[in-house]
Amino acid sequence: MSVPVLNRRLELEEPTRVPDGAGGFTLVWQSLGALWAEVTAGTGVERAGEFVTLASVPYRIVVRAAPVGDDRRPRPEQRFREGERLFRILAVAEADRGQHYLTCFAREEVVA
């Protein structure tokens, strides 16, 4: 693996349940901090729904590694934010033998 170019600043966010006052809850996304990343797009797919078209693009997002259990280590239930763009994390794996980087397999979905 060549050394990744970490040139995009992404916010790592995780979902938090907040009581709504009526016995239920609301899902709120809480920022865990910024990570520098290399973002590579895959091949996109477009699916037609009943009322909307959903375009879905897979991404490989490489970030510096962090120990398991550290808040800076991405997990599948989290997401990255870059401005208005959202990348849902599907899986995370070590990107190199030295465990210096992590590859996050993510998906950006856009409703058109």
End-to-end Cα distance, whole Å, is 36 Å
Strand content: over 45%
Structural class: mainly beta
Mean pLDDT: 89
Task: Please outline the major beta sheet.
Answer: 6 strands, antiparallel, barrel
Topology pattern, helix = H, strand = E: EEEEEEE
What's this entry about, in short?
By secondary structure, this protein is mainly beta.
Task: Provide keyphrases for this structure.
mainly beta
Written account of the structure:
The protein has 112 residues and is mainly β. Helices cover 0% and strands 62% of the residues. The protein has strands at residues 8-19, 25-41, 45-48, 53-64, 79-82, 85-94, 101-111. It has a 6-stranded antiparallel β-barrel with strand order 1-2-4-7-6-5. Strand 1 (8-19) and strand 2 form a beta hairpin. The protein is globular. The relative contact order is 0.26. The model has no long low-confidence stretch (mean pLDDT 89).
Fold blueprint:
Blueprint: E1 8-19, E2 25-41, E3 45-48, E4 53-64, E5 79-82, E6 85-94, E7 101-111
Antiparallel strand pairs: 1-2, 1-5, 2-4, 3-4, 4-7, 5-6, 6-7
